[in-house]
Amino acid sequence: MSLEEIAKLGLTGAYHAKATLRKEFKMIKCLPFIKPTQVIRLFNEFKCNFDNDLIPFMDYFEKTWLHGNFSVELWNLYDLEICRTNNSVESWNRKFNDLIAKPHPNIFELIKCLKLDEILTRKALVDSGNFLLAIIFNSKLEKQIIKKKKTNLEGFNERLKALTDSYKGKKLSDINLIEKIIDELESIQ
Length: 189
Prior knowledge:
By secondary structure, the chain is mainly alpha-helical. The chain has 2 domains: about 5-80 and about 155-189; about 85-150, no CATH class. Helix content is about 70%, strand content about 0%. The chain has helices at about 5-10, 10-15, 20-30, 35-50, 55-65, 70-75, 85-100, 105-130, 130-135, 150-170, 175-189. Helix 8 packs antiparallel against helix 9 and helix 10 packs antiparallel against helix 11. The longest helix is centred in the middle third of the chain and has 22 residues, at about 105-130. It starts with a helix and ends with a helix. Residues about 135-150 have low confidence and may be disordered.
């Protein structure tokens, strides 16, 4: 569910030209935060009301993510209690590729890069104040006192959790949650 799909479907021009289409695309991207039993109902509402230029993407999404190889339960984040974006995975992949610095490393180069990545990960966890994960990576850290530094992303994840908790407590409707998530995403970019 990325801008790559928009480009593959030939929708780049419409995406950049129409603010409503961009918002509708973002609303589809927020579906993973909705209760799994409500995703298909909400998607069908979107399909009836969204810009006609988005139909190819809606068809792709429906075929791939609703009725294809990936069940809603597989990609849904409704009950997930950890980092809710895949930005960290994409970031790690990019950084690891930079670390390797060539397309087909031999096994020894790969092991060396994996070890270096583990050291860099531990350091990053300590620097970010993420005690729990740092302890998992290195039990010696249990005895250390580390000041917690807040980053924009950590703040985002906390705000996202507060929003989804409000949604679970029925204080926000499906659409209200999606609109507030879009606002949060736009505030960190």
